[in-house]
Amino acid sequence: MGRRNEHSREEQREMAIAAAEALIVSEGMAGFSMRKVASAIGYTVGQLYLLFRNQDDLFIVLNERTTEEIYLEIKAATQALEDSAEAIRIAARGYIEYGQRHPNRWQLLFSHRLPPGTPVPQANWRQVQSLFGLIEARLQQVRPQADPASLHLDATALWSGVHGVAVLAQSNKLSWSGLSDYGRLTDRLVQGFL
Amino acid sequence: MGRRNEHSREEQREMAIAAAEALIVSEGMAGFSMRKVASAIGYTVGQLYLLFRNQDDLFIVLNERTTEEIYLEIKAATQALEDSAEAIRIAARGYIEYGQRHPNRWQLLFSHRLPPGTPVPQANWRQVQSLFGLIEARLQQVRPQADPASLHLDATALWSGVHGVAVLAQSNKLSWSGLSDYGRLTDRLVQGFL
DNA sequence: GGTTTAAATAAACGCCATTCATTTGTGGAG
DNA sequence: CTCCACAAATGAATGGCGTTTATTTAAACC
After folding, report:
1. How many Cβ pairs within 8 Å bridge chains A and B?
2. Torsion of CA B55, B57, B60, B61, to 10 degrees
3. How far apart are CA A101 and CA B111, in angstroms?
4. DSSP state of B120
5. Nearest chain A Cα distance for residue B3, angstroms
6. pTM, 2 dp
């Protein structure tokens, strides 16, 4: 055809993002392709490349949404809590549970690697920092007298550890250990920091 | 040609594995292809498929070698140590450092996902268990009076945490936190378990 | 020396990301 | 109202990939 003008560029982008998200959720990275996204929104591949520079460009947008979703979920689950130690435990469990609830999104976020030399997308990690800020603030409330530097170190170590459990849980690599109760595992990990 | 009989099947397999390893190390997963491996050993792709069922089959062998290398390195670095707490610290640092020293191998091992439904290869995780056994035994020496169940839980939580640091360090995702001294981070994580 | 048979090849299939010359509809100028 | 310029969209091409298969070729055996 050519020149339909049915949807604005911005609308097309949004349609493509939604279609890509659905495709990732249902088929995972293995079943994903630019062609499928294009045909899902009723356009050709060529047009998709006028909306996104390449596949990674689209992935980055999807990952932004994922990080935002994780952040909002954890914020919602913890903000009303008085007890900061409890908030940290809930946050950690929520993070891990997210990975299990959305394995394909998680995988796109954490196991897809950009080509070497590509800078880590700025926007993509703002929400990670926000989430991290939540944890650090809670940890500060638990240990008010700690100095900021060691608090930062502790918060980083804590969250790295939680991330580790999430990664292993999501990929079933803890099964050999006979431990399927990730909640207890997480609590034990968190405990060392409280 | 057809029927050269220059190398036995086993020799060809070994050549292919070595070539694949070199290719992964130098170009990473992105630059890897069965065709490149085949041409590196002077055979055609077709022949490669008589040696390995498919690409994943080859990857599994590579990952076995990686896990063995990690296990042997950490064993060598810790077995002479008297102090078990120190051994755990060294092991954790060694694990993380391995990921940084061999980013592409690490990536193949931990961020390549088999198609869903494929069982986690048995042989692949035997060495992971061996490594894990090392840690658990050391932890037991640190806390002789602990009951086995909670010891197992602790060892799993500890090593999951260490794995988390390794994953984030390897993919540069700790840079935003301003922490580049993974050693201190690791020590802090380990500290909660000692 | 001829025949069987295993080893290896070459070509094919269907997919992929990405690019680009070409077509087609639309909005504006006369 | 018509023509035209230009933006939107297409479709085909390029070069790569994993994997399969019919076919060829050389060695082994009788």
Report:
1. 128
2. -100
3. 18
4. P
5. 37
6. 0.94
* Nearest-angstrom CA–CA distance, B146 and B158: 15
pLDDT for res A2: 66
Dihedral sign, Cα of residue A4, residue A10, residue A15, residue A21: positive
Choose among B68, B59, B55, B21: nearest CA to B41: B21
- Per-residue pLDDT reduced to its tens digit, A91-121: 999 999 999 999 999 999 998 887 777 777 7
Residues B29 and B107: beta-carbon distance below 8 Å:
yes
Q: Are A120 and A126 in contact (CB under 8 A)?
A: no
**CA–CA gap between residue B109 and residue B124 (Å, rounded):** 10
A27: helix, strand or coil: helix
Count Cβ atoms within 10 A of the Cβ of residue A65 and give its class: 0-12 exposed, 13-18 middle, 19 or more buried.
middle
Taking the C-alpha atoms of residue A148 and residue A158, their distance in angstroms, rounded to an integer, is 15
Report the residue from B111, B153, B158 with minimal CB separation from A113: B111
Distances (CA, A) of A31 to A141, A153, B111, B116, B192: 45, 39, 17, 11, 42
Residue B171 has pLDDT above 80, yes or no: yes
Interface contact A120-B172, CB threshold 8 A: yes
For A174, the token pair is: 């803890």
Residue type present at position B52: F
Token pair recorded at residue A16: 């493509």
A188 touches B154 (CB < 8 A): yes
Closest to B189 (Cβ–Cβ): which among A116, A157, A184?
A157
DSSP summary character for residue A175: G
User: In angstroms, how far is C30 C1' from B158 CA?
Assistant: 79
Residue A49: count other Cβ atoms within 10 Å of its Cβ.
14
- Would you say A185 and B159 are in contact if contact means Cβ atoms under 8 Å apart? no
Residue A54: Cβ within 10 Å count = 11
Tell which of B32, B160, B165, B170 to mutate to test the A interface (max A CBs under 10 Å). Answer: B160
Q: Which of B185, B193, B76, B91 is nearest to B142 (CA)?
A: B193
8 A C-beta contact, residue A91 and residue A134: yes
The tokens describing A188, both together, are 């034990």
